[in-house]
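ARCHIVE CARD
Drawer: 12
Card no.: 0347
Subject: one protein chain, sequence and derived structure
Cross-reference: see card 0346
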Amino acid sequence: MVLALYLIPTPIAQGAFDTLPVATQAVARRLEVFIVERAKTARHFIKALGPQRPLSELTFVELERDGNLSPEGTALFEQAAQEGRDVGLLSEAGCPGVADPGAAVVALAHRLGVPVVPLVGPSSLLLALMASGLNGQRFAFHGYLSPKRPELMRQLRQLEQVAQQQGQTQLFIETPYRAPWAFEVAMAALQLDTMLGIAQDLTGTHAFVRTLPVRQWRQHPPEIAARPAVFLIGRG
């Protein structure tokens, strides 16, 4: 079998395995070597899918904190390439390499001449953009913004200016415990006619997604749950 690096999406809502296509699950079940963010989480995911081999016979290699493979992990991947063994790349939730670690491993695969096969699955960014009603032809993702209020306000106004002048939707994400705070800062930083979208727990039982002008958000502020959030800024 020719080696390939399979990029395997994982559910973005806890236990939402039905959001993964049958073909994606089938690939994950048959693989024996995985490069992952956290081995414990990855084992739980693979076990839930029903792997073809016992978990004890599978290999899970954790990424370093910076998203790179350790020297040992790199050697294992290179050995798999020489032996023609397929490898799966998993992130904690969503699509590896998109708002998650994985790009360095994919770059290594390209350097080694290993085919890269992205599989279909949920992406919180694309789902949020799809459901926002904002410009899906031009958009930019900025990851996490500053945890410091003055700097966050400056960044938000900068993103707002780009959205207003270029019509380019601006996306950023926040951790569960900072999501309510980020919304409050956005209310103070953004102009009244700027469009702000909020998406949380997409594909989950408590999914919330809505886009309104800042003026309306201020008049009827929502209860932002302590869950991961995608924020979108658009032209008013």
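Annotation on reverse: The radius of gyration is 20 Å. The CA atoms of residues 170 and 233 lie 5 Å apart.
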